[in-house]
Amino acid sequence: MPAPSSDPDNGHLTGYGSPSYRHYVLVLLMLVYTLNFVDRTLIAVVAQPIIESFQLTDAQWGLLYGPPFAIFYAVMGLPIALWADRANRVNVIAICIVLWSIMTALCGIAVGFVTLLLFRIGVAIGEAGCTPPANSLIGDYFIARKRATALGIYSMGVTLGSVLANLFGGPIAQMQGTDVGNWLTGLGLGWLFGGLDWSNIEGWRVAFVVVGLPGVLVAVLVKMSITEPPRGYSDPPSAQTNSAPSWHDTFAELRSKPSFWWMAIAASLVAFVGYGLISFQAPFLQREHGLSVRDAALQFGAPLSLLAAVGTFLGGYITERLTPRLPTAVAWVPAVAIALAVPAYAAAFFASDLFWVFTLWGIGAVLHYSYLGAQYNIGQGVVSNRSRATAIAVLLILVSLIGNGIGPYFVGFMSDFFMQQQLLMLETSSLLSPEICKANDLLPLVGDQALCRQANSTGLKYAMAATASIFILASICFALCARTLKRDFVAELG
Question: Is 325 exposed, middle or buried (0-12, 13-18, 19+ CB in 10 A)?
């Protein structure tokens, strides 16, 4: 437990607790955020096996991946954030970790489309209670000029979570059920699952269980080791408020901050592209380049996610270094970076050599994810300390509904559209469609199967390239955010 500063009025000069404890809290919160995205993105890593198990079109897969999760994440985000703005934030985070971890594990026993959908909704409800209170805690632990780096480090959880989801999810999903059963028997645990026929259990189901359950232990660690700091401890006295905000107060505050809304639109558009691409990353690599689930995860998914984490950190670091000379760097850095990501991504999707696919995709990922720290820094920086969790929740509602809610379905819809156009261009059979191509029992001709595979791959490639171009709009919105940012920030930017 940290010892509070002897003079709370000077908390804005030191932050809460000792430097080592602040860093411990930051790393643990980053671990929580990492776990959040491990559980959230695992479904993308094992996408192709699920598509094949349930015989889904790309549009159906996009619908499963995106809208239900996004809607419930958004619906629950505000009430949980308001709860966090009034209650012990550490307790809120711990409870929510337990919920989403259990729901992730239950995804492994889904018997069909509907049950998998319901368990994903449970994951969404739990994860809605992670980021708003965590951002609020970081705002009270770190002084204003240190928050860009702190939030950049915290935001690395997005990409580190994807790294771990690929490292563990890909290899596990590639395993056969009998291999898992034999492994457990070798550990002396076979008796726990004596009633299971492992030959009928798919690897992707095991991946959900193995990845989901450790979160309960992390929840205990959070509860036992993080101290709830006083609200506004690390803000200047002039910026501190004592009363709990109402919905009306928070929205009244946000209405007067145009930089918040430009940033929110920009972040939502980036998330639209990001969630769309990540939901089909593994299927793209498997269809276009013939990689297995394991190889797509280990050779591309994990290292690309690690590069994205580097981009997240660099975005915060570069912002902090530029801010003394350019106070609005927190908006200009992502504006420039995500615009440069467009040609890198487009070239990666159309490259034929795997070396260039990885290199160009990696450059795009570093540039793309530089925005993450900025969205949280701006989101909490333009409101008073008592409204931070609610402000971040408003941001995440927009990001979730537009990004996770529409992005994956958009890519899936466009993939099916381009696939249909490709089938028509081939003019071999006017009867072929994405739905028929997915139902293998309706494709007796070897030639038809080959055409379906070709069109399926090409359609997805075009869809992902078209989606990446939306980054241009996001870049413009970040630039517009910079125009009023200096005026809207509660603390001094420079």
Answer: exposed
Q: How many whole angstroms separate alpha carbon 393 and alpha carbon 78?
A: 6
Each residue's pLDDT, cut to its tens digit, for the chain (494 residues) gives 544 444 555 555 566 778 888 889 999 999 999 999 888 888 888 888 888 888 888 888 888 887 888 888 888 877 887 787 788 899 999 999 999 999 999 998 888 788 888 999 999 999 988 888 888 888 888 877 777 778 778 877 877 888 888 888 888 877 766 766 666 666 565 555 556 666 667 778 888 888 888 899 999 999 999 888 887 776 666 555 555 556 677 777 788 889 999 999 999 999 999 989 988 998 999 889 989 888 988 889 889 988 988 898 898 889 888 988 888 899 999 999 999 999 999 999 999 999 999 999 999 999 999 998 888 888 878 887 777 777 877 888 888 888 888 999 999 899 989 988 888 876 555 567 777 776 654 455 545 677 888 888 899 999 999 999 999 999 999 999 999 888 888 666 55
Q: End-to-end CA distance of the chain, in Å?
A: 32
- Between the CA of residue 354 and those of 145, 284, 304, 402, 463, what are the distances in Å? 42, 12, 13, 31, 19
Q: Crossing angle, helix 258-279 and helix 446-468, to 10 degrees?
A: 160
Angle at 348 between CA 347 and CA 352, to 5 degrees: 100
| CATH superfamily, with its number, for domain 14-234+246-488 | MFS general substrate transporter like domains (1.20.1250.20)
Which residue ranges make up each domain of the chain? 14-234+246-488
Angle at 196 between CA 190 and CA 202, to 5 degrees: 105
Residue 201 half-sphere exposure, CB side, CA atoms within 13 Å?
20
Picking from 215, 157, 197, the residue whose alpha carbon sits closest to that of residue 34 is: 157
Q: Which residues contact 233 (CB under 8 A, 6 or more apart)?
A: 4, 5, 8, 11, 15, 16, 140, 141
Question: How far apart are alpha carbons 238 and 345 in whole angstroms?
Answer: 45
The pTM of the full predicted model, rounded to 2 decimals, is 0.74
The single-letter DSSP state of residue 8 is: G
